[in-house]
Write a structure and sequence with these properties.
heterodimer, A: 2 strands, B: three-stranded antiparallel sheet, two-stranded antiparallel ribbon, 6 helices
């Protein structure tokens, strides 16, 4: 009997864990969808404010229902799949873009742990020890959605947009990765949770890696296809680029994936360089764990909102790069700079840890 | 080449200095400019909630006037139709019957009075021609419609609300005319 009981006990514990993780997954995915939804609204509002306009203010109080109206409109639009496209890949493109955009949120520590029903629940879906590598893997998969979608629509504008997206993301991923290596040499860990704990104890990583952060930031703009690097969807030359042939919610998915990517990128930048859920000048140990976790989540969200605003601010300030300028910046400036940063960081670490 | 305006600047073709080549200072400068616009006053007026006042000489939709007792001023003399350069006005006259004194001010009145708003150019000559202060141009404009025939405004569209039966609507329709002295 004793032999039989043990696996059942294990199963019970696992079930609770599965439920807790499932709830967390649903909450995180929902939250990132809602935030992405309101990021579209914020984008329009920020654009309006920076251009001395008023922005959407008709739907609901202050226009707060505008994203719902936009979503509804996209759902009711006619769904057109061009007859000359390859149908399966055409549908897979936006699905993949959306999937990879949401998948990244799995390894991000949204906060410390909360206590419910006498259980410590970590506010991180998966604390894997290669967290940042996982993020990189998934983010670089994201370009497949764009590439497949653009190729499947069998349109030259789309194809050029897709090609641009692919080459741009590959070029900038290099510099991003190298700038990150310097950071990893400082932290000595790939786990995002570990990095946040280190930053909570000491200084934020931005203090050690200002140049690394700058490179990472520029590359993040390129990875998200945001202005000034939004060449894949350059409206005036490519008629919308990779999503030229898309309509209805499939177009919505592409646009939405961009905003989720932006959100996730902001979270990652906040986690890597700005202490994640660490709230400065507040000792979390003074509060009960639930309150401390709440403060942590709020701190992270404030940082993220600042980054999102920064993304939008840049978009409405800087015009788009030319393609050769983009490649020049990526390969001949950012990569050497990232390499220099990596070597300098390594040298400094070696010098002080002798 | 001579400059077209005094504002034009010579484009510098000199190679960029290191500071300029870094781009980031220039980008920062630009971002500060856009940021400063957050605090600028917005010139937009929230239209349906807030309306700009019309100019005092604004000429809008015609209104057929009544006197203080609510009798129609128009005597169907036809001077407005003659004055109208766009030939937008047509009317049919009729004689006032005994017992209709509370409806029409004088012995003759307009049984039918139509203005084709698609023809009307809102010049205001009808108002100037009218000897009885029976027609004037108000401060509203013609609302949009789906059919052409809706734009031929009859008496029921043009007449001002009754001053004793519906004084509020009358006052509103009168607009800034209320201050003026009646002409007769």
């Amino acid at each position: 009997m004793a032999d039989l009981k043990k696996p059942i006990m294990l199963l019970v514990v696992d079930l609770a864990l599965i439920v807790e993780k499932l709830v967390l997954i649903v909450v995180v995915v929902m939250a990132s969808l809602v935030i992405a939804m309101y990021a579209t609204f914020a984008e329009r509002k920020v654009a309006a404010i920076l251009q001395d306009r008023r922005g959407p203010n008709r739907a609901g109080p202050f226009g707060l229902l505008q994203p719902l109206a936009d979503g509804l409109k996209l759902f009711f639009k006619e769904e057109i799949i061009p007859t000359f496209s390859s149908k399966f890949l055409f549908i897979m493109g936006p699905a993949l873009a959306m999937l990879t955009a949401v998948m990244t949120s799995a390894v991000i520590p949204w906060g410390d742990k909360v206590q419910f029903f006498g259980r410590d629940i970590s506010l991180q879906i998966a604390d894997i020890n290669i967290g940042i590598l996982y993020v990189f893997g998934v983010v670089s998969l994201g370009v497949y959605g764009i590439m497949i979608g653009s190729w499947a629509s069998n349109n030259k504008f789309s194809l050029i947009g897709g090609l641009r997206a692919a080459s741009q993301i590959i070029s900038y991923e290099l510099a991003m990765g190298i700038s990150l290596i310097a950071l990893l040499m400082v932290t000595g860990s790939l786990s995002l949770k570990e990095m946040v704990l280190q930053q909570q104890a000491g200084y934020w990583n931005i203090v050690y890696q200002p140049l690394g952060f700058l490179i990472f930031l520029i590359c993040a703009f390129a990875e998200c296809n945001r202005t000034p690097f939004d060449l894949p969807e350059a409206e005036n030359e490519l008629i919308g680029g990779y999503h030229t042939e898309y309509s209805s919610m499939k177009l919505g998915f592409f646009l939405f994936a961009e905003y989720i990517n932006m959100f996730i990128n902001s979270v990652i930048m906040a986690t890597l360089f700005f202490g994640g859920y660490d709230c400065p000048f507040v000792n979390e140990a003074n509060f009960s764990p639930n309150i401390a976790a709440l403060i942590g989540v709020a701190a992270l969200m404030i940082k993220v909102v600042c980054f999102l605003f920064f993304f939008m601010w840049v978009r409405w300030t800087i015009p788009r790069f030319r393609y050769d300028q983009l490649m020049h910046l990526g390969w001949r400036i950012l990569i050497p700079l990232a390499l220099f940063n990596m070597l300098a960081t390594g040298g400094v670490i070696l010098y002080f840890n002798k | 080449m001579q400059a077209l305006t005094t504002k034009s600047k010579e484009v510098s073709r000199e190679p960029m200095s290191f500071w300029e080549k870094m781009y980031l200072p220039a980008i920062f400068k630009g971002m500060m400019i856009t940021f400063s616009h957050i605090f600028k006053k917005k010139p937009t007026i929230n239209y349906p909630e807030k309306k700009r006042p019309f100019s005092p000489v604004f000429r809008g939709l015609q209104i057929l006037n009544r006197d203080e007792e609510g009798r129609e001023n128009c005597t169907a003399c036809g001077l407005c139709a003659v004055a109208c350069p766009a030939e937008a006005i047509t009317m049919e006259a009729a004689e006032r019957q005994p017992g209709e004194e509370n409806l029409y001010r004088e012995e003759k009145y307009a049984a039918k009075y139509e203005i084709n708003m698609l023809r009307c150019i809102f010049c205001g000559l009808c108002e100037e021609a009218c000897p009885k202060d029976a027609i004037y141009l108000s401060e509203t404009f013609t609302p949009a419609d789906y059919q052409r025939k809706q734009f031929i405004y009859g008496k029921k569209d043009l007449l001002i609300p009754h001053p004793t039966e519906d004084p509020e609507a009358y006052k509103k329709a009168l607009g800034n005319r209320a201050k003026k002295e009646p002409v007769n």
